[in-house]
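Please, structure for the following, as tokens.
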Amino acid sequence: MKIMIILNRIARGGGENVAVQLANQFSRMGHEIFFVSNKGRNDISDFYPIEENVQILPCFRHYFPLKIFSLRRTIKKENPDIIIGIMPDSTFYTYLAALGLHKIIISSDHSSFEKNPYSQRHLFPYLLKFYFNAVYDCVTVLTKTDYDIVVKKFRRTEVMPNPLSMQPAESIRVNRKKRILAAGRLNIWHCKGFDILIKAWAKVQEKYPDWVVEIAGEGETGRQYLEGLIAEKHLENRVILSGFHLNIKDFFSDSEIFVLSSRYEGFGMVLIEAMSQGAACIACDYKGRQREIIQDDSQGLCVECENEEALAGALSRMIEDEGYRRQVQENGWKRSHDFTPDKIGENWMRLLGELQKRR
């Protein structure tokens, strides 16, 4: 099968990472893959490793509408069987470029279909997401929660979780550090709920003097605020802001507990990554999305968003009950295998095959 994956711009981000992962996985499965973006192979490799067999086609180096004409030439030349647009803007450009070419177009969306209450709403992205998505052959969403919101709005909607960006650990590491890890950009601390984690930890930390909270991530403005909060709560030696880590996998595999404290989270790939390395996970559940990952208490703990007391209680339970923590680490690690590139790739192939048959 000839599959074209289109991404308007390459940067460090969740959707971009997934785009490259899908290209790599489809290539490993024996398909002919075209990856269209604004960068060449060397530039993409600076961000993400990409398979040699994936054909890189730089195409978004012009301004609108020249980029549409350039993309149309590329589509006509390569004649793919199916085109996957990664995120709404990429799919919209694809739709315009492919008018009259009778191509199967999939919009692969990587955020919640509810407005992020902590960011401004802009009209054009809103129209792309909620209205233009209705014209494509299929829209993939990350969770069943999002599926229920949009299933009646679009031609066809499929739940397609993101694939893991790291291989699950071969076995669960023992003798981990008594570390409660969180990760994310500090400048969006409010969305990530790092203040909630710090306040929850302040309620119980005196009982656990040999444990620390460590937040991995960078962002100068956010760092200043969080350092102020840490000082206010007298937690200078109990909460560490350790900055950006190139290999976060090592931190997952060496931490007893991982916490996703977000006020808003469309999916939470970092949660599955932590599970894949054997960390016992606690997640603030945003409207049921994280409960689709942590399916029951044997795989981890889900608590209400913005509830410091509930998060503090979950931390205490996970720290004090070592037997339970070991069970969660084992079952969470097993659960993460449902999100490997092989598994997600099989789901994609089923969908692509069905769409081809309908044509």
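Residues 341-358 form the longest helix (18 residues). The CA atoms of residues 71 and 89 lie 13 Å apart.
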